[in-house]
Amino acid sequence: MAGRHRGGAADAPAHRRAGLGGRHRAHARAHARRRNRLASLAELLALAVVGIGGALLLRSFVVQAFYIPSGSMEHTLHGCEGCSDNDRVLVDRTRYHWHDLSRGDIVVFSTDGTPYARESDEKDVIKRVIGLPGETVACCDATGRVTVDGRGIDEPYVWEGTSPFSAVEVPKGTVWLMGDHRSASEDSRFVGPIPIGNIVGKAVARFWPPSRVGLLH
């Protein structure tokens, strides 16, 4: 009497073999999808890390955003304590690695080691360059203008004029900074010249609020 034959999958009916093959293919496709999802997540994570690292690098070495807290630079820059529409500016931190400071530049500087640090909680202040090292700054000439080395300078950005002050020679390694809103600015007239080493960079553009977006001059 012939023994009972126990066949494997190869001996199964065709429809059963097709079912087994279909399940294997479905399992393989599901596994591939999971693997692709994991690969996509890994790529997104890598991109996020690169993006965050790039942003930190950009902020630390190239461009940094600053908030304008006061009205000392009106009307060029708007700011007031408690206001919700204060300007925000972008500062080029690399500008003075390649270029010299120029009169009229709007700069942000650190208050560390300056009289500002003793009188204010502000860590960074924004003003305009008026006097360069070795120049003599005073106010005013016959038309009420600030003078540099005895010559009046044109300042179309000034709001409310400048009160007279005695001539000051700007020491080597420092700059004379003033706010555009002269009657509301605590600047070099009160705290003296600022070390060039304290300058963070040049303010190049206003990016907030949207109605005031534009380059700074």
UniProtKB/TrEMBL annotation:
Could you say which EC number(s) this protein's record lists?
3.4.21.89
Tell whether Protease is among the UniProt keywords.
yes
Question: Could you identify this protein by its name?
Answer: Signal peptidase I
Tell me which positions the record assigns to the signal sequence: none
Q: Where are the transmembrane segments?
A: 44-67
In this chain the Peptidase S26 domain maps to: 42-208
Q: Where in the cell is it found?
A: Cell membrane; Membrane
Membrane topology annotation: Single-pass type II membrane protein
NCBIfam families attached here?
A: sigpep_I_bact
**Which species is listed as the source?**
Motilibacter peucedani
Listed Pfam families: Peptidase_S26
Kindly list the GO CC terms recorded for this protein. Answer: plasma membrane
Q: Which GO terms describe its biological process?
A: signal peptide processing
Q: Where is the composition biased (Basic residues)?
A: 15-31
Active-site residue numbers: 72, 127
Name the Gene Ontology molecular function terms of this record: serine-type endopeptidase activity; signal peptidase activity
Residue ranges for the region (Disordered) are 1-31
Where is the major localization of this protein? membrane
The UniProt entry's sequence similarity note says: Belongs to the peptidase S26 family.
| Keywords in alphabetical order | Hydrolase, Membrane, Protease, Transmembrane, Transmembrane helix
Which parts form a coiled-coil structure per UniProt?
Answer: none
> Reaction catalysed by this chain?
Cleavage of hydrophobic, N-terminal signal or leader sequences from secreted and periplasmic proteins
